Amino acid sequence: MLSVARRPLSAAVPAGNLLGIHLFKCPDTVGIVAKLSERIASRGGNIHSVDVFVPDDKHVFYSRSEFTYNPKLWPRDELHKDFLDLSHYFSAQRSTVRVPDLDPKYKISVLASKQDHCLFDLLYRWREGRLPVDINCVISNHDRSEDNHVRRFLQRHGIPYHYLPTTSGNKREQEILELIQDTDFVVLARYMQILSESFLQSYGKDIINIHHGLLPSFKGGHPSRQAFNAGVKLIGATSHFVTTELDAGPIIEQMVERVSHRDTLQSFVVKSENLEKQCLAEAIKSYCELRVLPYELKKTVVF
Amino acid sequence: MLSVARRPLSAAVPAGNLLGIHLFKCPDTVGIVAKLSERIASRGGNIHSVDVFVPDDKHVFYSRSEFTYNPKLWPRDELHKDFLDLSHYFSAQRSTVRVPDLDPKYKISVLASKQDHCLFDLLYRWREGRLPVDINCVISNHDRSEDNHVRRFLQRHGIPYHYLPTTSGNKREQEILELIQDTDFVVLARYMQILSESFLQSYGKDIINIHHGLLPSFKGGHPSRQAFNAGVKLIGATSHFVTTELDAGPIIEQMVERVSHRDTLQSFVVKSENLEKQCLAEAIKSYCELRVLPYELKKTVVF
Amino acid sequence: MLSVARRPLSAAVPAGNLLGIHLFKCPDTVGIVAKLSERIASRGGNIHSVDVFVPDDKHVFYSRSEFTYNPKLWPRDELHKDFLDLSHYFSAQRSTVRVPDLDPKYKISVLASKQDHCLFDLLYRWREGRLPVDINCVISNHDRSEDNHVRRFLQRHGIPYHYLPTTSGNKREQEILELIQDTDFVVLARYMQILSESFLQSYGKDIINIHHGLLPSFKGGHPSRQAFNAGVKLIGATSHFVTTELDAGPIIEQMVERVSHRDTLQSFVVKSENLEKQCLAEAIKSYCELRVLPYELKKTVVF
Amino acid sequence: MLSVARRPLSAAVPAGNLLGIHLFKCPDTVGIVAKLSERIASRGGNIHSVDVFVPDDKHVFYSRSEFTYNPKLWPRDELHKDFLDLSHYFSAQRSTVRVPDLDPKYKISVLASKQDHCLFDLLYRWREGRLPVDINCVISNHDRSEDNHVRRFLQRHGIPYHYLPTTSGNKREQEILELIQDTDFVVLARYMQILSESFLQSYGKDIINIHHGLLPSFKGGHPSRQAFNAGVKLIGATSHFVTTELDAGPIIEQMVERVSHRDTLQSFVVKSENLEKQCLAEAIKSYCELRVLPYELKKTVVF
Predict the structure, then answer these.
(1) For residue C5, which residues of chain B lie inside 8 Å, CB to CB?
(2) ipTM of this predicted complex?
(3) Are D62 and D50 within 8 A, CB to CB?
(4) What is the pTM of this model?
(5) Domain Formyl transferase N-terminal: where (chains A, B, C, D) (predicted)?
(6) Which of B15, B166, C56, C268 is most enclosed, with most CB atoms within 10 A?
(7) Which of A98, A131, A160 marks a domain boundary?
(8) Does D30 touch chain A (CB under 8 A)?
(9) pLDDT digits 0-9 by tens, C32-73
């Protein structure tokens, strides 16, 4: 597999200090980083990394900064206000600041269908402390017996499980909307239903999907079979934002693995599942670390 | 990059012996490997590896064997006759035997257009002894001055260069056919012309193409631009056999590289060119080592 | 990480047939593969792959073959007898034949200390069916409470757990020997004790260890700290056979990961643990699939 | 191979602007990035990336910044003065600023012995414009005929070649010192001589060496043979700064490749040479892009 190597969150946080992350999008102008870092310094904080992206001829400025600061000298609400100021000052279209060790974790719901490898992998990583989210519920259109291993896991950890069977006439979107309304974003862990435009508009927040093919190849159903029949030598998985166009939202991560003539449709599926798990987890982790921003119609910045 | 790791040709050849390679395709039955290895042993030779592929329910048997033998005990023409016998015995659809250190190298022609990175890379590998072929000529539909580095290289090594400019009305296929008729196979090193069905039939031998996209995505023109606009996080290159359907022949190799929001269309092209060179060279090398067999309509066995 | 890509076990087994694996070591001579495959064919079986290794000037022949056969035509005990015949015929030093879907799984004991990441990873893979072994017991010199997750797992699956605290004066080797006497091989999953020569001789079978360093660098204690202090840019893990010389037995697998100035000793340990798990699991899997043979004093053949 | 993926130099430089790089080391305090970026902004420039490293409890601050600016508004000598000011202000131990498209390239000398793969690879990359250096001369203690391919290459490009044969009694260090005195740093491209302490002190600038082993394993002579005899499954190469202790200077880059029982000592060497070339080129490129700083006694920061 061809792995990603994002720079990890800064570990060099002085004792008594906290790490803050700031994601920013505004019209391009001179001195944005200077202003940001000056404000942070004026509160006794220190920039640890800044990553700027200014697309050619687009006059848009994107940045992501990590900084450390002393929470006694810079209380959370003042920090918030300071960044709000900066946001107004630069007419920002987006300004998010997070202090991972202080702020509540992102709250998510996970939607799944019959295939549970991505769902279970998320739960497992969550339990190991490697996915910085709170899971408010799992919603599935596939029934699972009480002693199914997903059900047992959820029960043991007090996460509600909602079985909402869908039909072509009833996608249960209203009930889903109610269950997910308090979340920060939603994850489709191989949820095999297309969400309607009105659902997407009503929810209004980000939805991250995992597609078991190397988009834009192999959209729609049975991508592993499509890839198998096409005689490819590489298969892949793609995590992306959900938009109204099927499997065409901005791509966050892609992963690939080699296949050969010896691989069967079944081993394509096994290899794909392994990719899907890692690709989805990586996308969620990046999202929670404020690395991901949609960009133009079909693109993402992933700092 | 996600590299391939083919098992290298056996290096453990006893002094005075030679390495032979045998590629075989026939209806599946019992005892094929036994018969092959018995014949080899009866001549004092030894099997070093056998790789068999029998697709599910297809009743076809593919194998590739490497063996060492003493050429004094088993002269080349008798070796040939022995494998021909076996071929008849098993009603083989394909039986090729090569002794790389004895047989003439495969003779190829290379067709190119303006972009010369693949062409020059092939020439460079050839000079370094890493591509076991003889190049009988280079044909290009793009003019190059006498002191162009490709021209200089070819001149220094006595390889003819033919400039055959193409128009929509005249693809120069007849002249190309004459130039390539003595070759064992043909390589399209970014030759930006579609070859006609009648050309393919007249030539009748294998043609290997490099496509600068991860097929079946991004067929046709400007695949790097297509990929750039699609916001992919991975770009790739594909070497494949040429068939009458554009960019849809059986895939031999695929290679990928990561891209990010920081990549420009230009850096997509640079990364792609690097992939194309490696992907094409790997395909040619595999082909010459008798590892590659088309399989079903769109697939290949690559031992 | 730089992953290994062993060819998977042949999946193309005709209905009603079984896959057999044969590992062989004997003095080199002409016609060994021919004889093996002829015997298999005479029973209606078919070779699927043969891999031969004849080290330069060593006059030793190693081979590993996969074949499929009909168990009704070739009962297990006759198959055994046939390969025993061949073994005598070629004066083999080693001849092992396995039919994974018929033969009992290899029985192992796992020894561990305080760090349980390798132990738990093995148990998890075993439960998922990805490690073809039976675990007869887990032995630890570190106490674990009744509701420790390893203990719970073992209890749920009926695997005995033995707590045998060691002191410098009492390594509990006699008790360990009794517990492991029925096993096929033993796995040290970060067991932080050196086993005595007499223990190794008494047990007499293979013991596989995982070392959290890239041997022969960083032998002995605290290899992560040693690597950290040496300012390396790559860390690794090594699985190897245990011999009387500390951390110097024949290497089976090695895996590496990048580190940078940003990594702390703690993140070295985290990355190392991830490598250790995969490196140990891969070694055990290869061993069970008859791919591994010690070779010369310090080397292994890993087909 | 496990490749490195340094973030490439920022390509998003507005028309008429230039990219500047600044490397900084000073005692840690509050507001360093703020001060740096404010100064850049005050000249109409913009920070594109900042990467800070503050080792635990070391009270040292390292940073590397990329910025773009208009050279008409900020002439090179004023830019220089501004950063000198900052350097004084923070009592910096190190402050280097480079404008790659304006400043002269780093001037280097390359020392080589008989093995010329690294030397030739450097020359080739240099000619392709992929190594941003000027080569003032090549020094070798191995004779090469006039029509050797290295000699021809150097002659064609007007780079002096000095043959300085060494004996155990005469290392020719005085003559070498004279030849390299105008360089910015020196590259040992498999120069098989140990440089004396007085030589290192006299030169006083950085010397980058390539070692054909995975340090700290396999120091000294014949590392490939050492690795071969140790039965490793991974071989590597290491580029590092030269210090008075043999093969023990701070490591800049390391690269690895898989080997197996099939590899011979000769194929170890071939694989190693491939690693050495890439590892050395990567180190030089990183150095020229101001990414590399020695850190503590045996470590490097490689931004």
Answers:
(1) 5
(2) 0.92
(3) no
(4) 0.91
(5) 107-284
(6) C268
(7) A98
(8) yes
(9) 999 999 999 999 999 999 999 998 777 899 999 999 999 999
